[in-house]
């Protein structure tokens, strides 16, 4: 196992630019609504957690909004942006003396100031004092813009910062969340560079796994190879999400791989594998799915389903550009898959009639794709007040927005044979007539195919950041041992330039 | 990379035996205290968690007491033991229909009954009804023995079960925790077999890492190799704790490797490496440390410190048997290390005088070892009412108990050069005279050495379950490419026998 890649230097300037972007957006908003231009954006970073009642410490991963603005890897921080001056302030926990013995050097405040490129650094027990001193507004109590808002994927609310003395401040809980979320939706060049590296190393790891997958292995061995490649050669300690290593019938379980379905099946001759795995590099993620036959050769049926999904994947990417509605892209993918299934003899009848009965959702119950960034399901898919589509399939979409330049979005059409979905549809009087029941029955136990790339929207079109082999001939060649070199996309900051 | 090992079948009988053991202990206790022999032991399993406000699901790992009694890998369960009848009852969450599409087959109750070898299985919304029906006591309200007690490593309390309708029960919060904890302290043969496998695969992975470590690598690449080996060949998805891959000066940071000190140093010629890494197999853990020079050859100074620690490690293991007090073992290790440092010219003066000034704690600030099992720091180190030693070093001990047959305990002496500890000790008028300041100064930046094995106490002595090369000549040979085959210890249940 080897790699042509190595982890790039992380540009902390990225987070300074993120902060500037937020301050500009917030000031614009305040100016439009004729509100005074003062107060502090104030966020609480994540805390380290122990497992249940024990002292087993779980590996800390920073909260994503805090990571976006400050890039801090340590737990227990707070951060503030002074809206008037633009100053950035980090508040660092005061560590006990024996930290040096157990957990490492107690770094001086100057270390954090330099590392995270902020204007000032203080201890967390100084928050009230410092913010009162720095405040340039008129009121008796300084104003804090706290983060409170809905995550439309989880339906959970972000937790606004809490600290001792917070009652000595005015609090605004509504302004910050939508503005900061929208900043995250549109990626800067430096952000794109990190997502690109996460894609490069993950693409290479996928190729490595593809080449080493063998009948008789366990699914989790594929996961282990992926994790090792991305950590060993990419320095990626975290994954964007738990690896989905589904083979055979398991590939019809969309989020397979969790603790109750832990990638523990043995690979069998004739299986399709569906591997949905992506590494995270300095908080920025990737999200990539490959589907291939574990024995290295596609059968006719496997080719039929695979190419249906590949055609959908390619057609969407060809159509993507600013202004295109994501719901239309989902429908385009559905239509291409239905057409292929009809051509392959699995479906019968008029495609438009199938579409109006939402037949596409019987084969692809999930949405076509989602925003990607510091979270795998990056926030901002539904703007405040936007409603989810109600139709079957479409209602699973994590965004219904029009594409904008700078968005990174996954394109992940799939075609699955899920008994819990297909059996009712085949029995339903409205949809039964579309199925060739005999042909479909051949695909019982087939599982499913998903092809997923990470795509960013440019001013005139889009760029696929994922570099895996996609054509059947390329996959078969790679699995037979052919080379598939992955060239690292040059990263702007490495030459000291910004795109 | 290859392995002679493969994951054994997991015997669910192990958890049935754990339940029987608890019931016997609890009944004995009730009988001695003339309390009625009825009611239910009632535990809540762990819940899956998402990261902050997002839908990013963290990989679930069962709560350890629940894992001990039921071996359940899925989240959201409850479990009961009927004290009178001995019946075991699992309560399973009722999953929504679309679980089948997203997360996998919705398994029937019979699946869980068979898999987990329990008497009955119901849904979690039936807890109140079922327990009232099953109750064989006299009171109007059935009695629940809930888990509430102090974890003496974390100082946190276990969280007693909560469910809708709990007010229809009497609750006993005091009886269960000490009895169940003591059951966990003394391992059964089947438990030992799993800890042995975790040791076998982790020992092999340590050898693999040792052999592949090279100057110029990053510390996290050693972690990646370890994780890969234990998952790929041992099926170990979890580690017992975050890997500590410390080289150079970092090896003097006892719990290095966490998010704020993330194994990111580059290995340099002349460094010692201290690798503290252990895999977990079906909840049962291992905890192993190796120390070696990254260039494969010990210098004279490195040999001096290494052999001091190895002698302490070996002397302790030679002395361990039931009835031996763990505090005495700690003192034995300290004494051997001090003697070696004196012989090596770093210390001057009378060993007993050093001991009474607690000089050992200046070189080994942590405890000699801790109970090991489903938690890395397994509970039960201090029985209720037992006080921690107050002396420097000794107060870091996670247990001060006498050894009992069936305990598994780590033996992990260490010798570190920690500025934050040594500088004050060398300036202190009481301890300054013991140091040869010039000699000691040679070890600034040396880091530290730890050697850690997992040992179980037998009726007449003890057995070292860890199989890594320990002698300098063996380590140098392995690093130069010599074979170090690890034979799997036969596991009793594989022949259908129990030891």
Automatic annotation (TrEMBL), chains A, B:
**Keyword tags:** Dipeptidase, Hydrolase, Manganese, Metal-binding, Metalloprotease, Protease
Q: Which domain of life is it from?
A: Eukaryota
Q: Which residues form the Aminopeptidase P N-terminal domain?
A: 10-155
Question: Is the Phosphoprotein keyword given for this protein?
Answer: no
Does the entry feature the keyword Metal-binding, yes or no? yes
State any GO BP term from the record: proteolysis
Cited Pfam families = AMP_N (PF05195), Peptidase_M24 (PF00557)
For this UniProt entry, the molecular function terms from Gene Ontology, in alphabetical order, are: manganese ion binding; metalloaminopeptidase activity; proline dipeptidase activity
UniProt cofactor(s): Mn(2+)
Name the Enzyme Commission number(s) assigned to this protein.
Answer: 3.4.13.9
- Give the catalytic activity: Xaa-L-Pro dipeptide + H2O = an L-alpha-amino acid + L-proline
Give, as one word, the top-level EC class: hydrolase
Describe the protein's quaternary organization and the partners it interacts with: Homodimer.
Q: Which family does it belong to?
A: Belongs to the peptidase M24B family. Eukaryotic-type prolidase subfamily.
What protein name applies here?
Answer: Xaa-Pro dipeptidase
Name of the gene: LOC113693823
């Amino acid at each position: 196992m080897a790699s042509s890649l190595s982890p790039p230097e992380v540009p902390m300037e990225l987070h300074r630019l993120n902060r500037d972007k937020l301050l500009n957006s917030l000031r614009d908003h305040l100016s439009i609504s004729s509100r005074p231009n003062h107060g502090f954006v104030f966020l609480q970073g994540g805390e380290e957690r122990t497992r249940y009642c024990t002292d087993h410490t779980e590996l800390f991963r920073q909260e994503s909004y805090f990571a976006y603005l400050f890039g801090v890897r340590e737990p227990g921080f707070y951060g503030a942006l002074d809206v008037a001056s633009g100053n950035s302030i980090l508040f660092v926990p005061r560590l006990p003396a024996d930290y040096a013995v157990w957990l490492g050097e107690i770094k001086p405040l100057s270390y954090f100031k330099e590392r995270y490129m902020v204007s000032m650094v203080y201890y967390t027990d100084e928050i009230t004092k410092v913010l009162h001193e720095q405040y340039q507004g008129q009121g008796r109590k300084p104003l804090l813009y706290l983060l409170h808002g809905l995550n439309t994927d989880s339906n959970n609310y972000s937790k606004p910062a809490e600290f001792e003395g917070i009652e000595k401040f005015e609090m605004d809980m509504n302004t910050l969340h939508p503005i900061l979320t929208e900043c995250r939706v549109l990626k800067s060049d430096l952000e794109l560079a990190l997502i690109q590296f996460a894609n490069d190393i993950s693409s290479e790891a996928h190729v490595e796994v593809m080449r080493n997958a063998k009948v008789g292995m366990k699914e989790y061995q594929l996961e282990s190879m992926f994790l090792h490649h991305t950590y060993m050669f990419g320095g990626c300690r975290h994954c964007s999400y738990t690896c989905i290593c589904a083979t055979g019938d398991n590939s019809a379980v969309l989020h397979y791989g969790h603790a109750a379905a832990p990638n523990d099946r043995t690979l069998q001759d004739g299986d399709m594998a569906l591997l949905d795995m992506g590494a995270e590099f300095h908080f920025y993620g990737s999200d990539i799915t490959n589907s291939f036959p574990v024995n290295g050769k596609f059968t006719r049926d496997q080719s039929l389903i695979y190419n249906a999904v590949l055609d959908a994947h390619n057609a969407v990417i060809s159509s993507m550009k600013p202004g295109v509605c994501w719901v239309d892209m989902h429908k385009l993918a559905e239509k291409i898959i239905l057409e292929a299934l009809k051509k392959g003899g699995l479906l019968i009848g008029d495609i438009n009639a199938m579409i109006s009965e939402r037949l596409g959702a019987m084969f692809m119950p999930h949405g076509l794709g989602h925003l990607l960034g510091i979270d795998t399901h990056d926030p901002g898919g539904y703007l405040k007040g936007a409603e989810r589509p109600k139709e079957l399939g479409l209602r699973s979409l994590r965004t219904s927005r029009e594409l904008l330049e700078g968005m990174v979005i996954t394109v992940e059409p799939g075609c699955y044979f899920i008994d819990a979905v297909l059996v009712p549809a085949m029995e339903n009087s409205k949809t039964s007539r579309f199925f060739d029941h005999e042909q479909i029955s051949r695909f019982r136990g087939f599982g499913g195919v998903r092809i997923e790339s990470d795509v960013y929207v440019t001013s005139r079109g889009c760029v696929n950041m994922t570099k895996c082999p996609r054509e059947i001939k390329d996959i078969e060649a790679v699995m037979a041992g052919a080379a598939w070199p992955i060239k690292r996309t040059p990263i702007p900051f490495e030459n000291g330039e910004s795109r």
